[in-house]
């Protein structure tokens, strides 16, 4: 008696497979019944001061040695003020990890991020808890924080993060190369920037770039669209949250300027040059080694240059403004670290105390700002005489940008800044010359962004 | 190229007879073909091994030199390897990778053997459907199921560890079951019947009689499980991504260059460190390796 | 066994029951695995594809919205589909043909065949992440040896992993480099072709191409089919090398999926991004359903054509 050989599959399908099928169904039903996504949202604990010793975990994204050491120093100050709270800090955490931890129920008590674009998703999904009850209960003075900075840390009426040190962007330039090319002062308009770039660029015998005056290729180091567009005053979203890149002429103007400079170099040469640039945060950074004469970067670069002991004679200035928009000169882009309490934090009371300390205590802010060379986020800290950075001439342009009322930021959106990612994809096509009609392309991007925004609702 | 048995039309050579002339020509031709074949093989070998040589040479360059097109290091900086371990927790990654690979392999072997045996040698209704299910599981891309699986592990609070990677192997691995089942089909029924007649229950038949005969298949499955786990990037990315202390080599190496702001020299050193254990194991178990791979293909 | 038929019904039923229990015991881990790790997640994937799940807050039923977004909202999905399609249509055949060619060269070698086989197989051992990182370094248009060597030959090398047109071919070269496993399998199959068949063909006057077509190919075709189908399934899942290559080539800390210009964005990558980075887990499940349907279609094709699988085969 043997099994039938080589019959069609359907023959066996008709035979009852009770035992196997039954156990499968039972198992599936049990598991399906047990499955629901999500759980209870925990409320912020603003209860009475409880001084039982507690240890909280704090994840931050800083990774270089001098930055982590500085954070630990500030945490030591926090421990002195609240001796019953011990903070376990974990460095080099990215947003992906934070998200995964929240989903997995293993979130830290406090988490910070470089990427304010995620704030919208965090606030609207409840991944980060709304801090408004805590802020009101402790009477935190939000007017200390500039409006632009407040705007990228909240979304949809919920303030789920606080700003923790800000970043502003400006122009770094190599004084020695300037002198060699006969340029006496940093450019103030975008056409001056283009002209200076051409003067500073040198080529090898085979036509490849030896020293680049400026890197107009978007996506390299700090040269990102969001840092370029403020020179034209572009607004990413309309007042009712719709995508605005097609509607606002600033974007088309910025991209046109950018492409003409890319074409002067030759897009392929720029990509080849980019592939040979040292890692952005290493001591082989192309600006620090003199291969890049001017670059747009954040204020932290000052501190990196100092720590890398780079052999470079440099200066800083605010980014040039677009031609005909001189009122924008002195404004720029502001972004920064955000810090909040993830859902599922085990010690919300202690966590809030740490957040409040790091973001509003003047001494904490000035110490950390001086140590890692970032912009402190409260007016009190900015005006504090203890702030060493305010005496550093290379830091002055960045503080100027921070205080300027016309400075803008990238607004929060519910899907983690998909509008920026979409625009980034468009720009990649644009700068390699694959977009024949700029205006139509930008309108298409608007349509995509709006569809993406609707998806998350 | 054909071997001629009859004398070919004469093209006058210095050979004494047409027959010898043909043989001479054929042997010259064979020599040329031999040279050509081996030249191609050598060329291919260079192409295959070249990258590994390049990795090694770059790994001992200085920072500055690794950004240039020089192929030979001016200065042999062996300290790069020490620097890699100092820059990133490579030792931790190694340990995690070994843990994952060993645990997954053991679990796979333990659970897949009985299932394969049942599919190959036990008779029951629905056996063919069950085998079809195995094939379906084999062919199913893991990304299809990842979202609910992730939610499930999250509810069990096991994300951030390697448990989600290891535990499923305790319930059988489709590819291993498939391989083992195909192999078991070639074990003659007589051995099994002899044991059954002697009064052995099926479990004893399996462990006493069949298992010893399955050694090559077990080695093959073990090797494949081990290296699938060692090389796995997707699984650790999803399930251990949030806890750097549990990262595996694959995960750490992927972001090594940018997370630690290093240049290509250290990155290549880290790459070699990730490749070395596998290559070393291979040199010790070459025969088993090749046998195992062959088994997969021939029985598959 | 004939004697079983002579047993009375009761002992027979008892024996059958024992047999069923035994089978269940052997299959137990597999059954649990099937239910927990296949059926349940599959059902949930389909269910979640009709919701707006973001894996954090409770999911809400939204009907076909995710599928509509797939069809005409997502700007990147057609890139992803085209790229995965390219990989299946170009990379897989390239791998099969290359592995077959190398195997044929190795089969004909007399001196040092096993050494060459080892050398050809060695790169297949390299972990995919390591191999990808190494290749991006090697193919660096500025400082990599490949363009340097091409330059010596007078060819101006392309931008490889930084060029939208060359990134997938570069990934294909990476796959060819690592096709040692397939090659060893083909080699074993080639060596198993009986020599008598070749001799008979020669006697009939067949040239080398005819011998290949009528002797070699039919004999090794089950192995080639198996390799091709597993290659296709791997192509549909292709994730690691594309993801790592795009990030390393781009050189930023933030991952840059699809760099350059969406050319390396595969379908599984888009699934990962939507579900894990963009809070669109419901949409990711819709993508998963599509992937499932396509993978199953290929599987059905395989099952219909593969007589070599011995699916219905009885124990010998």
From TrEMBL, chain B:
Residues 94-285 form the ABC transmembrane type-1 domain. It holds the Pfam family BPD_transp_1. The chain crosses the membrane at residues 32-57, 98-119, 131-153, 165-184, 205-227, 266-285. InterPro entries: MetI-like (IPR000515), MetI-like_sf (IPR035906). Residues 1-24 are annotated as: Disordered. It is a multi-pass membrane protein. It comes from the Bacteria. It is found in: Cell membrane. SUPFAM superfamilies: MetI-like. Keywords: Cell membrane, Membrane, Transmembrane, Transmembrane helix, Transport. Belongs to the binding-protein-dependent transport system permease family. This is Carbohydrate ABC transporter permease. It comes from Streptomyces hokutonensis.
UniProtKB/TrEMBL annotation, chain C:
Gene3D superfamilies: MalF N-terminal region-like, MetI-like. It is a multi-pass membrane protein. Its main location: membrane. InterPro entries: ABC_transporter_permease, MalF_N, MetI-like, MetI-like_sf. The keyword RNA-binding does not apply. It is found in: Cell membrane. Residues 81-302 form the ABC transmembrane type-1 domain. SUPFAM superfamilies: MalF N-terminal region-like, MetI-like. Belongs to the binding-protein-dependent transport system permease family. PROSITE patterns: ABC_TM1. The chain crosses the membrane at residues 21-43, 86-107, 119-141, 170-193, 214-239, 281-303. It holds the Pfam family BPD_transp_1. Keywords: Cell membrane, Membrane, Transmembrane, Transmembrane helix, Transport. It comes from the Bacteria. This is Carbohydrate ABC transporter permease.
């Amino acid at each position: 008696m043997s099994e039938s050989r080589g019959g069609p599959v359907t023959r066996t399908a008709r035979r009852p497979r009770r035992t196997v099928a039954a156990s499968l169904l039972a198992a599936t039903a049990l598991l399906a019944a047990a499955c629901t996504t999500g759980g209870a949202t925990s409320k912020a604990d603003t209860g009475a001061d409880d001084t039982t010793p507690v240890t909280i975990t704090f994840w931050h994204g800083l990774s270089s040695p001098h930055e982590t050491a500085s954070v630990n120093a500030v945490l030591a100050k926090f421990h002195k003020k609240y001796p019953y709270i011990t903070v376990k800090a974990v460095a080099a955490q990215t947003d992906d990890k934070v998200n995964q931890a929240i989903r997995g129920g293993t979130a830290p008590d406090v988490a910070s991020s470089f990427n304010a674009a995620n704030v919208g998703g965090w606030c609207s999904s409840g991944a980060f808890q709304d801090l408004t009850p805590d802020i009101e209960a402790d009477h935190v003075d939000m007017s200390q924080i500039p409006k632009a900075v407040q705007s990228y840390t909240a979304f949809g009426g919920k303030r789920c993060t606080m700003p923790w040190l800000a970043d502003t962007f400006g122009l770094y330039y190599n004084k020695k190369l300037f002198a060699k090319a006969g340029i006496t002062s940093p450019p103030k308009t975008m056409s001056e920037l283009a002209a200076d770039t051409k003067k500073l660029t040198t080529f090898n015998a085979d036509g490849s770039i030896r020293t680049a005056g400026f890197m107009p290729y978007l996506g390299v180091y700090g040269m990102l669209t969001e840092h370029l567009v403020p020179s034209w005053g572009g607004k990413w979203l309309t007042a009712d949250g719709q995508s605005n890149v097609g509607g606002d002429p600033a974007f088309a103007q910025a991209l046109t300027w950018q492409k003409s400079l890319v074409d002067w170099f030759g897009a392929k040469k720029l990509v080849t040059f980019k592939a040979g640039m040292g890692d952005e945060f290493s001591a082989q950074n192309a600006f620090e080694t003199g291969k890049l004469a001017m670059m747009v970067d954040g204020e932290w670069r000052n501190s990196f240059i100092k720590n890398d002991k780079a052999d470079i004679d440099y200066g800083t200035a605010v980014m040039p403004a677009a031609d005909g928009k001189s009122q924008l000169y002195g404004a720029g882009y502001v972004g920064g670290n955000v810090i909040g309490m993830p859902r599922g934090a085990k010690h919300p009371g202690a966590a809030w105390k740490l957040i409040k300390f790091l973001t509003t205590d003047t001494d904490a802010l000035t110490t950390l700002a001086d140590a890692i060379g970032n912009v402190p986020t409260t007016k009190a800290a900015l005006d504090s005489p203890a702030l060493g950075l305010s005496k550093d001439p290379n830091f002055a342009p960045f503080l100027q940008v921070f205080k300027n009322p016309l400075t803008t930021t990238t607004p929060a959106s519910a899907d983690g800044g998909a509008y920026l990612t979409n625009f980034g994809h468009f720009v990649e096509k644009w700068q390699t010359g694959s977009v024949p009609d700029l205006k139509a392309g930008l309108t298409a991007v608007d349509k995509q962004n709006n569809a993406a925004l609707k998806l998350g609702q | 190229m054909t071997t001629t048995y009859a004398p070919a039309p004469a093209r006058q050579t210095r050979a004494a007879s047409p027959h010898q002339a043909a043989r001479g020509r054929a042997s010259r031709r064979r020599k040329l073909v031999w040279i050509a074949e081996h030249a191609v093989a050598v060329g291919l070998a260079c192409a295959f091994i070249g990258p590994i040589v390049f990795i090694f040479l770059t790994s001992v360059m200085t920072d500055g030199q690794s950004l240039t097109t020089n192929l030979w290091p001016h200065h042999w900086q062996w300290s790069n390897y020490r620097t890699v371990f100092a820059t990133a927790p490579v030792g931790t990654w190694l340990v995690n990778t070994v843990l994952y690979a060993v645990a997954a392999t053991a679990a796979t072997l333990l659970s897949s053997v009985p299932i394969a045996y049942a599919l190959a040698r036990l008779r029951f209704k629905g056996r063919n459907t069950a085998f079809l299910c195995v094939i379906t599981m084999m062919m199913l891309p893991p990304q299809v199921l990842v979202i609910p699986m992730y939610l499930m592990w999250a509810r069990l609070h096991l994300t951030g560890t390697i448990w989600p990677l290891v535990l499923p192997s305790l319930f059988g691995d489709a590819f291993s079951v498939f391989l083992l089942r195909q192999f078991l089909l070639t074990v003659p029924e007589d051995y099994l019947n002899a044991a059954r007649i002697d009064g052995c229950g099926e479990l004893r038949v399996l462990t006493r009689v069949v298992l010893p005969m399955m050694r090559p298949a077990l080695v093959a499955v073990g090797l494949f499980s081990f290296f699938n786990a060692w090389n796995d990037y997707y699984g650790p990315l999803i399930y251990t991504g949030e806890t750097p202390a549990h990262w595996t080599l694959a995960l750490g190496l992927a972001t090594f260059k940018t997370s630690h702001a290093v240049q290509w020299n250290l990155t290549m050193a880290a790459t070699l460190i990730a490749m070395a254990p596998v290559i070393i194991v291979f040199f010790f178990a070459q025969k088993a390796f090749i046998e195992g791979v062959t088994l997969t293909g021939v029985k598959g | 066994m004939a004697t079983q038929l002579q047993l009375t019904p009761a002992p027979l039923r008892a024996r059958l029951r024992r047999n069923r229990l035994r089978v269940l015991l052997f299959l137990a881990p597999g059954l649990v695995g099937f239910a927990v790790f296949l059926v349940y997640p599959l059902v949930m994937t389909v269910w979640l594809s009709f919701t707006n799940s973001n894996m954090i807050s409770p999911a809400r039923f939204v009907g076909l919205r995710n599928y509509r977004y797939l069809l005409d909202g997502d700007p990147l999905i057609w890139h992803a589909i085209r790229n995965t399609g390219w990989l299946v249509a170009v990379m897989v055949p390239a791998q099969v043909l290359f592995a077959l060619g190398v195997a044929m060269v190795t089969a004909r070698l007399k001196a040092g065949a096993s050494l060459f086989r080892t050398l050809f197989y060695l790169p297949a051992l390299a972990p995919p992440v390591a191999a990808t990182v190494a290749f991006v370094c090697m193919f660096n248009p500025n400082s990599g040896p490949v363009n340097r060597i091409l330059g010596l030959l007078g060819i101006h090398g392309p931008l490889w992993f930084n060029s939208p047109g060359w990134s997938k071919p570069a990934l294909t070269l990476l796959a060819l480099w690592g096709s040692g496993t397939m090659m060893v399998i083909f080699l074993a199959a080639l060596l198993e072709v009986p020599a008598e068949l070749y001799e008979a063909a020669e006697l009939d006057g067949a040239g080398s191409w005819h011998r290949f077509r009528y002797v070699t190919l039919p004999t090794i075709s089950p192995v080639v089919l198996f390799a091709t189908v597993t290659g296709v399934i791997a192509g549909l899942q292709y994730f690691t090398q594309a993801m790592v290559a795009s990030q390393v080539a781009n050189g930023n800390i933030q991952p840059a999926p699809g760099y350059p210009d969406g050319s390396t964005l595969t379908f599984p990558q888009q699934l990962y991004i939507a579900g894990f980075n963009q809070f669109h887990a419901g949409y990711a499940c819709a993508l998963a359903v599509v992937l499932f349907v396509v993978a199953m279609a290929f599987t059905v094709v395989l099952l219909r054509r593969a007589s070599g699988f011995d699916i219905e085969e009885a124990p010998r």
